[in-house]
Amino acid sequence: MIAWTIILLALAGGAIVLQNAVMLEARSLSGSALVALWLNSAVGLVVLTVAALSTDGPQAFAKLSEGRWWMLLLPGLLGTFYVYASLTGYARVGATLTISGLVAAQVLAGLGFDLMRGTGLAPLQGLGVVLLVAGVVLVFGASP
């Protein structure tokens, strides 16, 4: 199970690079980062709506009304912000710096999330976080 998860994550990591490269082209063609973001969201919304309705049915959407109001907005806002930041980073500083900064920020935020949940941190995980952040500092320091 862990091996399949690692493969999934590796494929998703590669897909993000390709997605951002294609969105950068859409931004160039349209002249607008917002149009590129719209394209990303519109296609995703159609695909996910069809998949969710065919897998879980409309009752899964109805259950959302039982949740908190912010739960309906926050994931989309945060996801859009992430994609916008990625696209902006690709355009301004390139893929390597963008990905390095995003990964380091995600690992540090994930560490905070795990610590808040009481998951803890193994010593080798802590060393890995330190080395990752040090690597990002080197990548940013070596940038032209």
TrEMBL record:
It comes from the Bacteria. The keyword Transmembrane helix applies. One of its GO terms (cellular component) is plasma membrane. The chain crosses the membrane at residues 36-55, 67-87, 93-113, 120-142. The keyword Membrane applies. Keywords: Membrane, Transmembrane, Transmembrane helix. PANTHER family: INNER MEMBRANE PROTEIN YDCZ. This is Transporter family-2 protein. It comes from Salipiger pallidus.
